[in-house]
Amino acid sequence: MTPLPPGPDGVVRSTWGIIRDPRGFFEKSVSRYGDPFLMRAMNGPVVVTGKPVFVEQIFRASPDTFSVFARDALIPLLGAGSLLLMEGTRHRAERKRIAPPLHGSCMRTYGNEMQETAQNAIAHYESGANFTGLQIGTDISLNVILKTILGADTAPLLSEFRHLTRKVLSRSWPILFFSPKTQFGFWGLSPLDRLRSAQEQLREKLRAELNRRGDQINHRDDLLSILARSTDDAPAPDFEDLADSIGTLMFAGHETTAVSIAWAFYHLLRHPVWLNRLREELDASDQQAETYAAMPLLKAIVQETLRLNPIVTEVLRIVREPFELGGYDIPVGHGVAAASCLTHYDADIYESPNEFNPQRFLDRTYTPSEYYPFGGGNRRCVGAAFATYELAVVLGTILHSHELELLDQREVVPVRRNITMGPSTGVRLRVRKRR
Ligand code: HEM
């Protein structure tokens, strides 16, 4: 058997490297040890690659080749009923239930909610007010998720769910996800205890809301109601599983989009040529959500933003059946990672990879192993269509009606938030209504 590839020593150093600056750590490792290389991190050894030919092998492998990375460590945080942690037939069945309402014609219904939410969020600021892209992105994406996924349709319900969700997020410390050793109880005071207590409060609210809805769940089109009801093929899920599932959608679907909104503002404001070109198209359009979602230029801007700033810098799997990658036989139990933060900056694929240039996405398409901000294979992000739709609608709506000024004088860099990376300053902005 070919030995594992070489890689940097030091579990603590590697774990710190990936928490603090994954792209920097990966690039340094590749230049020293080659691609793929072996990363020894607290969650176990992982063979990392950014080469499309190997990434394709990972995404095309049969689903049974892999199990979920760090599943045992994540169960206490996300719950066994989370789609992110399911495997095999249960995973396939759950995706079949969740995916349809996040695609196609449902998007048209959600699109108007998304647009209205963006309009309200920006109208909240007086001309000349300062805020961050992350703040407004979080306000918008959280409200969108709460309205469309949870179906929170009254102001008090929205505000209560918003408060409880924020509490869960603010207690989701990165270290809890990266080291199971930090997951211990201590009289209700440890980080895990505090996260659990916030999750419990959110769960109680969900339970109360479902009780309030009663039979209405059979006629409503929010995801909570859709997932809560029985179908011809399956009985209604048990409450704990449903709460895990909804919790994951809220967690996975809100912060990722919020961060992407902030990055898109950042890049557009630093590249007025693209902003002006976009404005001309927005002004000439009918300014409807559906039109924005279908506009090739907006789509290319979103794609280029996610290329430069993949919110999840690598997607991970655990090898369950012997797997060969790049001439190495990866033993069962080892991890493999497809690192988009490496692939997306590969100069053989992307000319001048550090430049923001949406034109590249207007000129050609990239394969799923050259461009994968939403991961790939059977675990590809189930909310990808929802997120790209939302990003286009939000950016189009705000940039059509308002001028934004970038207040950050220095370069904004990605920093760790939890399992995601976000802009160091949040992207500081000043707003003015457009004439
Ligand atoms: C810009 C926004 C988003 C980004 C960058 C993003 C990225 C990702 C990535 C990289 C994965 C892992 C894929 C893999 O392992 O191959 C993932 C999985 C997932 N995402 Fe997203 N996501 C976004 C928005 C959303 C939204 C809006 C939702 C829900 C409404 C969502 C729900 C999920 C779920 C449930 C999974 C687990 C899928 C599975 O394991 O089968 N995401 N996402």
From TrEMBL:
* Ligand binding (heme): C381
Q: Name one Pfam family in it.
A: p450
Under the heading InterPro entries, the entry gives: Cyt_P450, Cyt_P450_CS, Cyt_P450_E_grp-I, Cyt_P450_sf, Cytochrome_P450_Monoox
Q: Which SUPFAM superfamilies match?
A: Cytochrome P450
So which cofactors does this thing need?
heme
GO MF: heme binding; iron ion binding; monooxygenase activity; oxidoreductase activity, acting on paired donors, with incorporation or reduction of molecular oxygen
Q: Which PANTHER family match?
A: BIFUNCTIONAL ALBAFLAVENONE MONOOXYGENASE_TERPENE SYNTHASE, CYTOCHROME P450 FAMILY 4
Q: Which family does it belong to?
A: Belongs to the cytochrome P450 family.
**Name of the protein this chain belongs to:** Cytochrome P450
